Every structure is written in C-alpha cells, then in structure tokens.
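Quick one:
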Amino acid sequence: MQKKGFSAEKYIEEQSKYILERIGSGNERLYLEFGGKLVQDKHAMRVLPGFDENAKIKLLQSLKDQAEIIMCIYAGDIITSKTRQDFGITYDLEVMRLIDAFRSYSLDVNSVVVTRYEDNPSVNMFINKLERRGIKTYKHMYTKGYPTDVDTIVSEEGYGANPYIEVTKPIIVVTGPGGGSGKLATSLSQVYHEYRRGNKARYAKFETFPIWSIPLKHPVNIAYEAATADLKDVNMIDPFHLEAYGETAVNYNRDIDAFPVLKRILHKITGSDDGYKSPTDMGVNRAGFAIVDDEACKEAAKQEIIRRYLIAECSYKKGKIDESILERTKLLMEEVNATRYDRVVVKPAEDYAELKRSEDPENNENVIVSAMELPDGSIVTGRSSENMVATAAMVLNAIKKLAGIQDDALIISPTILESLGNTKTRIFHDKSSLNLEEVIMALTLTKLTNPLAELALRELPNLKGCIAHCTAILSEKDEQSLKALGIDITSNPEFSSNNLYSN
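Output:
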C-alpha cells in the first residue's frame, strides 16, 4: 500500500488563499491560466500520494459564482489525433469529456477556442460538432509577430486580429486538454481586448508542476520532465527570481524563455507588469507546502518516471514518438538511479512468461503474461490462452484471491465462454481470444447460477489503484477496460502478433 505523502486539505486551503489574493478587492478581471489537468489529474495523484485528483475543480466549484471557463485546443493536436495518455482518448474528445465534467460541478463553460487555427477537415468537423450542440467556438490564428515583435503582437494585426471572447464573470479560467494548447496566447489576447474596451484585467497562472519550492532535481520535478518529454520541457532555476529576491525557485524552460517577452507584452497592454519580477511570481503554486512526507513523494515520483519510460518504449514501437523522446525518458529514469525492474510487476511477468516458454518451446510467440500487485503487496499473474487474453486471466486471478476463492475453482461457466467465443467468430469474424471486457461480461452472466462469480465481481472495485505489467502491447480495448477499472498498466514494447491491422 502506497504511503501518504501529501495533504489534499492543506493544498486546497493554500491555493484558495493565494488565488483570492490575486483577485484582490478591485474591479479587475482575472484571466487565470490553468496548467496541468483540471479534472482527474492522475499524474499529480501518482507523484504526490494523497493528492485529490479533482482538487482543482473542487476549488473552482467553491468559486463557481465568480468563475467561468474557456477551453483551448491547438488545431494541430486535432489533426494529429494527439492522445491523452491517462485515458487513451484524443484531445478533441478530451475537450468534450472535460466540458461534461465541468458541467457536473455546476461550472459555466463559456466557449472553446481553436488556437493556431488551420482550415482542415478534421478541425472544421470538430468545430461543427460543438456548435451544433450549442457550444460557442472561436478561431484564433497564429499571432502575427510572435514571439519577439511586441509592437506587432500588441496591435490590430496581432491580438487584435482575434475575436474577443464575450465573458461576464470576474475570474476567467483558461484551460485545455494538455500542454501547448494555446492557453497563454488566449489569455493575453483577452487582456488586450479588455483594455481596448476600457476594462482592467490581470493575468496569472495556476501551476502544479514543476514545484518551485522544492529542489530542482527532486524526483517529483524530474517526473514532470518525464511527463512532458514530448514537449521537450526542461526544469531550470528561475534566474529572474534569483536575481530579484536572492531566492532559488524552480521553473521550466518555456516559461523562463517567454518571460522577458511576456513582461513586455503585459506592459504594453496595461501600462504595467503587475509587479511580476519573475515567471515564478506569475504562478499560483502552493503544492510544495502540502508535502507531508518527502520520502514517500520521492518514491512515488521515481515509480512514475519508470512508468513514463515504459510507456515511451511502447509509443516508440507504435511509431507515435521519435527516438529522441524515448532517449530523454531513459536518461531521466537513470537520473533517479532506477531501472525498469524497480517497477515490482515487471520481473514477475517476464519470469513467468520465460518459464512457460521453456515448458513449450514450440509456442514461444504465443506466451503473453500479465502481473498485478494487489493492495497487500502480493503479486498475481495471468497468461494468455485460446479462451482469454492475459490481462483478463490476471484480473480473474486477482479478484479470486481478494474474494478468498481457491485458485482452481471455476468462476466462469466454460459453456458461456465457448458460446461467447463462437458468437464473436460467427457474427464479427473475429477469432481472437476474449478480451477483458468480454470476460467480465461472461462472469456477470455466470453469477446467475454460480455464487462464486458474484463474490468475485464484488472485488473489481478493489483493484482501483493497483499497478500491473504485461509482456506484450495491449489492444486498445483492453487498455481502456483496465483504465476504467483504475488499474495502472504498462507493457513491454512487443506486439502480441505479427498482424499489422489488429496491432
């Protein structure tokens, strides 16, 4: 069981206090850029054990009468079908999922902005989908003159070329499905338009990572670099903060590089720079002050860095990333003196697969094994068969153990398994083994006649938060099913077969 290292209560208290300080008592509108995930921030939850994955949105819910949300998405991410790793869905679908989540917390979603708009069929289809569901959308082009020609940026040709997003509340949260979504440009464009209309407005940034108040090479900060390897983010000591205050603070290269220009832009728009002397000043980040067990957070972050490397290996194998990103994640893993085998489920999966291959040398390619660590620290495994995939066997063995059911006890009717397999082949022309979702459906049907199946099914929620590993790349369907169960799984960078279409 993972040891708690972070106080969610203290974090919300600290963040609320500092956001309200930024709003002040005046009549200025605050454009608050939200970095990281606003909803279900699983990265923060993994590296800061005890972090509430929905802490940010709960904080906003407490300010719902004063806040509304603008969602940003970069057109290029729609075109390339960029995927959010935690949920395995593309950024355009993530925008829709987030809108539903915000509404469930009674938060007003003002609109969606497509940044650096391109006239592309997939981009236009995305806009049409939103508009036909009653969601306002705006198109922002690439800002002319950016990043160095401030006179052009702050002019009719620059920010002035963007349409103004009509807002009504004092706090405007600007967020997106991931990094590089255009949140900063949208915020500054709005501040520009506010001043043109005779209104006062401020800009600030709600950040979680990197955490400025802990060491540069702290594993939690290194884990942030691993998570953003595709963006080539690098943590650095904020030189502006050090010069202004004589105090060491950690920030990252994009914010540090952009700060001089950002300061000049704000000064040209507003006539002042809001008193910001460093990019760290612009952020509202109190996460470091809510760490209650530093060693627990270091170990959790180390595990996250290993996890990111294993994910990068598979992404490279699939052709989704280039070799430089894979090498970067490997270097970060080595920086914390870790190897892939420090993830406790990797070796048991590989060892069991090797054992089964040695027992049946002629069927080496067909042996796939998954291993999972249960809440008590024990490891269960499952291997592929004609009936089901390895992850399904692993989940069945896990819930049997949690329910106290003997290992050799049948909890799924062989007749139901055979019937499902035959239907899958006959109707869908799919001869593959039953996937995890199909096996759970078979277990659900079996419970009508077998009370052991009912006992096992009750244990499924207890798998949430468990880690697992498979010796082959998972199908998208199994990956989604495991994520739905809350199981954090990684894989070896090997395809389950030589078939190009099914992989």
